[in-house]
Amino acid sequence: MCEDDDHMSTASQQGRAAGVAFCLLAATAWGTTGTAATFAPDVPAVAIGAAAMGIGGLLQAMIALGAIRGDLPLLARHGRLLLVGAVCVAIYPLAFYLSMRLAGVTIGTVISIGSAPAIAALIENRIEGSRLSRRWATGAAMGIAGIALLGLTEGADEGLAPNVPLGVVLGLVAGATYALYSWSARRLMQRGARARAAMGATFGLGGLLLMPVLLLTGGPFLESASNLAVGAYMALVPMFLGYIAYGAGLSRIPSSQATTISLFEPIVAAMLAIVVVGEQLPPLGWLGIGLIVACLFWTELPIPGHWRRSFPFR
Q1: Cβ atoms within 10 A of the Cβ of 132, count?
Q2: Is 13 domain-assigned?
Q3: Among 170, 157, 115, 105, residue whose Cα is nearest residue 140
Q4: Alpha-carbon span 105 to 32, nearest angstrom
Q5: 81-105, pLDDT tens digit by residue?
């Protein structure tokens, strides 16, 4: 009996370790997108976004086709939710890649990813009536301060960051649409849709909405092998394989832990931008990034029980 318990415990630990590894793999893949996009400077940012999320979303729908067919009546009943999520899926990559093109890979990624948790909490508060905690307010204050510092950043290479303030605004748009399509997919699941069906339908419909953008702006992808390689990489690795790895991680570890691990993405993006792209930020910019990363970990990491008794986080 004890041997069986030990075996089950070992298997559980191995499953958790695999879940952590899958989530780290996903976050690493997502963190490469900004640097990869710099290898196709002649391709418009909106074309890169349309290729990445559009083709990647259609691939997600294809592997979830059976689940989508099975849940089609339910998805049709909640078509408004599905449409909101799909429109946000279509807007998100356009804003995200434009943000990185205008503000630089580091700032664009950190703003887009860093603003999403706070915006998600606001969405739940306004739509579902969930209470905003003191802990959330503290984290949001840190995040807003960090975003403000990044928006005021000067001294960056104008070739790598031609318009930081506009890039910050677009990063906030990306964070808002990311939070909103995550919320709508979650609501579909709460109303009975299977996870694969909800995500596959949301990403697939969003991908279809991006196809006209890709057709109108994606001509430069065909002008060189390197441009085509960047487009293929974006669609297949971060947006397709990355989400498969993340789903595999979610099946093995709690979603709160998976979300925290995914915060590795902006760290990967920043390091690659410095080492590969050659981006540089003044001290004020790094302080802003530090505040946003601190906000992410403050709001996402679980609080030990004895801390909860000592401090009124909620």
Answers
A1: 14
A2: no
A3: 115
A4: 10
A5: 999 999 999 999 999 999 988 988 8
The answer to whether the beta carbons of residues 188 and 78 sit under 8 Å apart is yes
Nearest to 52, CA basis, from 88, 6, 96, 11: 96
Residue 77 has pLDDT above 90, yes or no: yes
Q: How many CA atoms lie within 13 A of 108 on its CB side?
A: 33
Number of other CB atoms surrounding residue 295 within 10 Å: 25
Residue 209 domain boundaries: 24-310
Question: CA 9, 12, 17 angle in degrees (round to 5)?
Answer: 125
- What confidence score (pLDDT) does residue 11 get? 57
Number of structural domains found in the chain: 1
Say which residue the tokens 């399509």 belong to.
181
Contact status, residue 27 vs residue 75, Cβ threshold 8 Å: no
pLDDT tens track for 191-200: 998 888 988 9
Sequence-distant (6+) residues with CB within 8 A of 36 are 230, 233, 234, 238
**pLDDT classification of 298: cutoffs 50, 70, 90:** confident
Q: Is 145 helix (H, G, I), strand (E, B) or coil?
A: helix
- Answer whether residue 17 is part of any domain: no
Query: Rounded to a whole number, what is the distance in angstroms from the first to the last CA of the chain?
Result: 42
Contact at 8 Å (CB) between 300 and 118? no
In a domain, 109, yes or no: yes
Please state which of the ranges 98-107, 164-173, 184-193, 283-292 shows the lowest mean pLDDT. 283-292
Is 118 within the bounds of a domain? Answer: yes
Tokens of 5: 């318990």
